[in-house]
């Protein structure tokens, strides 16, 4: 209820503030027997970390993850995985003007109003720095999903008014890391980069959106009604900092489509099972996966911390004042948001895999409920 | 996990299939002392019920709600409220062609794939008929919110390519029930009506969207991160049948706004507290309410059950066939979806009111934790 | 949080007051494909129902259960099962003296203090009548467990100072329904019966205890720490009305045993797997099942509603008064508590079976995650 | 579901294995504005830590707690509190004989059977070392409760067949830390000490029990049915490692009491509210607190790790063998269990305080829902 837990069977519980001592999370419900090292997690953290390019904040955080529990001899043990990531480059001084005079459209005011206090350095708990935990947990979820043949990927498909053309999943897998913007389409990426730099130079920032897609999701994943795949994805994605819209399938365009046009007729696949002719339904029907790719889009508004002068109201002095937010901030969010969106997609899907019994909640290598004394990676003799 | 429960402190647990014997839900966590009668609930059920106009299904359901528990002498007792609504006009025969040959883009196939079976009459559990439970529970949530000064309303702001101009909250309160389309703007409503009838005559259906707004939401409601107001609204709204997009504040448009333009400066309100100059942030900052109106939009795709001929694949016979869905169906969803969206908004907000301690979880009339033997509406002498 | 929900994957949500219109519950998370009829549930309800013998309340309730949803062609569909049981013989008049003058040691005062009101007829929500819902849900849990080879049974092993000798599980299965006391040992049952009648004649009541046992529980069920089998059984059993103690294995006697005596050495079973030589550990080690029978005991205090005169304090008049509780009440609880304890044991175990993936959460007949269009009990052609 | 989370509004999520790198927990739902330092937590950790006397394990762990988040200027911020405790004195070597040959009645076999692996050093996740997290979280809960006038305490009231006479709450507060056994009654403590040393010398261990009591619990705390105070205490206490019985009020003795004897008549307190004449009901009626002290008892079996030779079955070699458990182990659990039982009592009660709205979930210093910009301990000017 405190907002720091995600998931039902695969649960992530996080802690940490932007300028606190450390970030961390506990993953509960990861089955035993998954080969897992800090490197597996680090790869995704590096995609999210600050300072990776000219269009991200210059804060210098290595974001080295340390696994504190839940691993034996390189494999998960089925017990909680504790992760800690030290904060190393926090400089809170520049936030002092905003202690009692909230930054426009940031969480400064609402956190203080709710809690009567807040950790103000770097945005504290409200900072997107917290998503470092999500990406760490998401990396584990991705590893579990990959074993089951589920692949997922995101890329930046819009910055300001620059939109990318449609790209294939294969292109996404291959090209999404090739430029700083994380847009699969190289020409569009160049345009986006130019646009971002333009706003950056003006001391402003700009919004954008991220397209995501998952393939290999088995038929029948999800649940009716309140826990539908679309509802749980909705929660997951709307939790991503700065998100103002979540769409799947046709998204907002569906308002203009007729039933006949949007409906996907049925045919048979090679194994003789019904399969939709097209995928205007976005891989989800009645809240449950159809076996087609699940795809959608997340809109992120422009970063609120900008060097341009803005008006704030100091509740301590009772005075209005003009302030510039001087810290180190991103001029645009989607490029670093890509691994965050992927993480939330992965966490949502792996949870449903466990809920459907497709993943053995106790151990990955066996059928659910099997009991097999032969298999013991914790046994040194087995190594 | 079964998809039939919504809410954390104010919980709704539902049951029922479209052509089953009855629909029903249990409301847990409603504080004691709220005056409540079946009429309070019926009013919203009547806005949702079938057969209310030419552009809704002709199924004849009175949707009379019966309160089975949780009320004493006209007031809630703090214990679970059991509601039952009989199904009276179910005619399953017309669904027989689809038992093993799924309707395009409906939940027929995915339910069968997940459960190995399904209640096929009228869509069974996957039917939007289930939202009768949501609206019933939502009516109670609205009554609680009204006591705390929170008002909310929705209306249809788009059907096909016909969009309504912006309307004020006051107009919504006053005019949203004045036409069958439930669009506050009369001329647009006429256009929408004409468009719907056109598709209806062709045996087709059309999509649309619903705008919602809540006023009087206190400052500081919500939670950081995964349980932010926006994340929980995201889940709530994406659970509404046929939803393909959820937006709040600027929604998808935020992609094109700069930080400077979207950021809302601060000024002081009459009591000397900081308040945003505008509300481009949609009433939520850092996942927590700012005191400004919360507004947004939900896109609903066109109904999938249409009388036009479509191709389906019969997994029993292995044959492709052309079928028309003959039952009684809506040609468009938003008009009846308005009370459903309001219900989900109300359920989400009342839950946060309880979670924040603003509503006494035990009894509405007192400060939380107070203990007062004088107040006993269950005492006949007090009547 | 409202106290009317039990279970994590197999969830029961209840409503109803002793003298309200109806009792009811919704079962969420029961897999599809289980053959289920009202008769399956009725059998256990009849064991719990009032008026079944001279030593139970004379209230005349047939306790006929009606299934409102979740069943198609005699099989569960995987969607919520709604059950309703009408109350037919409520006579609230005799409770009027206690509206503002609480019965000693009943929930009258605490409910009123918490909620500022209460349904006072027959104890309202605090009445043990509510366990009719538990037994109904438990009957479904038992059917699921039986498919997996898990059997469970309870019997009355103590009334006042009359204790039954140890009995075997086979004797429990065979003889527990042979007398009104529900004690497997016939001579002890006679003694108990005589003792109960003695107190009944005096206008008093007496306590007792129930022994329970489950066999066939697979190795490895449960979870570490807070969700251990023993912790979850503790919650389940301590929820049984009037319970003051829960024990498993050696229970309170374990205080006097040494480690050497209580520890159970290991040997090999026929399949070459380690198995404990004895079962002083009660079938649970480290919170997880060992494969040995799980057994324990629940103590129920004497019914508080007795015809003997007792002192109460009327908060309306400010006067002390002597009152006799005249309604129709049980002189002892364990005989009717036996099916309630079995129900809570079954609900706890079936939940762990689902959590461990041993039961396919989607459908009972298949391996988790399998997708098989051939199996469709909802298809009339298959019948 | 993974067993590492306790609580509903005040949630503790733990990680760590006995011989892993670190133990840790995240506390979610602690209101803002509570003064809190590492010293507050350390005091209770020191009561639980190993090596504190001759009758505890000689493992040398300072158990220094480090707060990683959730505190600003010495006060809680309402956001998650991350705690980490390094493991410093782990010597796993002595556990090698038991990797594939489980210790009798420990969790070795069941963990391996469930997960197909386990962290075997020192018992890994199944070790009572994990309760260091519980005690840390419990210390915060106690501080919150103390503000509301709720006090609680536990002491050892039985070791083997040596039982302590009844002691008053005041004696418990004053004397429970005066001897190594943590028994309030000095003569009994001496007897207990002698008995423990006797078993210790023999290479054996012995069971015992802990009495707990809470005073100042407000009237009306708890919930009906499944979430009753007794049910939730049942779960909490049965989660304590080695617990085999939980009793409250008369406990198992209630079986022999009549209704007339056990029932507590009502009188008026000084403020004219009904109050029970006695407290045979243990402070809980109908699952809800009566305002009387809540008291009960927890039985802990003898430690299973003993230096005496025992038979185990090696599933790798298929051979039976005799082994002594050589590590550093406690000969008896209750003395170090006292702070653990207190922690679980505190965590349960604070959760109910939040659920009842008696504690403002957002900030301790204000009425729930109040919004007050004056109060800002995070504002350096306020210091």
UniProtKB/TrEMBL annotation, chains A, B, C, D:
Q: What does this protein do?
A: This reaction introduces a second double bond into the aromatic ring system.
On cofactor binding, the record's note says: Reduced FMN (FMNH(2)).
SUPFAM superfamilies (alphabetical):
Chorismate synthase, AroC
Q: Which GO terms describe its molecular function?
A: chorismate synthase activity; FMN binding
Designated gene of the protein = aroC
Please state which protein family the record places this protein in.
Answer: Belongs to the chorismate synthase family.
Binding annotation for FMN: 125-127, 286, 301-305, 328
Stored PROSITE patterns: CHORISMATE_SYNTHASE_1, CHORISMATE_SYNTHASE_2, CHORISMATE_SYNTHASE_3
**Catalysis: reaction(s):** 5-O-(1-carboxyvinyl)-3-phosphoshikimate = chorismate + phosphate
Put simply, this protein is called Chorismate synthase
GO CC aspect terms: cytosol
Q: Name one GO biological process term.
A: amino acid biosynthetic process
Q: Where does NADP(+) bind?
A: 48
What organism is this sequence from? Natrialba hulunbeirensis JCM 10989
Cofactor(s) for this protein? Answer: FMNH2
Q: Which Pfam families match?
A: Chorismate_synt
Q: Write down the top EC class of this protein.
A: lyase
Point out the signal peptide segment.
none
CDD domains, A to Z: Chorismate_synthase
EC number(s) from the headed UniProt entry: 4.2.3.5
Query: Could you tell me which pathway this protein works in?
Result: Metabolic intermediate biosynthesis; chorismate biosynthesis; chorismate from D-erythrose 4-phosphate and phosphoenolpyruvate: step 7/7
């Amino acid at each position: 209820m405190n907002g720091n837990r995600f998931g039902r069977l695969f649960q992530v519980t996080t802690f940490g503030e932007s300028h606190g001592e450390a970030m961390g999370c506990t993953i509960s419900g990861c089955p035993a027997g998954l080969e897992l090292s800090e490197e597996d997690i680090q790869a995704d953290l590096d995609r999210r970390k600050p300072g990776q390019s000219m269009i991200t904040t210059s804060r210098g955080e290595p974001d080295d993850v340390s696994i504190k529990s839940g691993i034996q001899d390189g494999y998960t043990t089925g017990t909680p995985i504790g992760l800690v990531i030290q904060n190393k480059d926090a400089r809170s001084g520049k936030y002092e003007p905003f202690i009692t005079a909230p930054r426009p459209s940031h969480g400064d005011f609402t956190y203080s109003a709710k809690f009567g206090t807040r950790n103000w350095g770097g945005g504290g708990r409200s900072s997107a720095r917290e998503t470092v935990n999500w990406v760490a947990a998401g990396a584990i979820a991705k590893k579990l999903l990959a074993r089951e043949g589920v692949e997922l990927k995101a890329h930046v498909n819009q910055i300001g008014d620059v939109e990318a053309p449609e790209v294939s999943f294969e292109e996404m897998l291959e090209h999404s890391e090739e430029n700083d913007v994380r847009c699969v389409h190289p020409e569009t990426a160049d345009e986006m980069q130019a646009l971002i730099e333009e706003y950056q130079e003006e001391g402003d920032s700009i919004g954008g959106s991220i397209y995501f897609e998952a393939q290999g999701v088995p038929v029948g994943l999800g649940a009716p009604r309140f826990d539908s795949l679309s509802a749980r994805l909705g929660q997951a994605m709307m939790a991503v900092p700065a998100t103002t819209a979540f769409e799947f399938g046709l998204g907002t365009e569906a308002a203009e489509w007729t039933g006949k046009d949007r409906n996907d007729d049925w045919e048979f696949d090679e194994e003789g099972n019904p399969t939709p002719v097209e995928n205007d339904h976005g891989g989800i029907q009645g809240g449950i996966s159809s076996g087609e790719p699940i795809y959608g889009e997340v809109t992120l508004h422009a970063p609120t911390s900008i060097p341009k002068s803005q008006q704030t109201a100091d509740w301590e002095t009772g005075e209005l004042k003009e302030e510039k937010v001087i810290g180190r901030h991103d001029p645009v969010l989607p490029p670093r948001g890509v691994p965050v969106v992927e993480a939330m997609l992965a966490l949502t899907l792996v949870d449903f895999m466990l809920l459907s019994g497709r993943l053995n909640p106790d151990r990955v290598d066996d059928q659910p409920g099997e009991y097999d004394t032969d298999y013991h990676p914790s046994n040194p003799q087995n190594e």
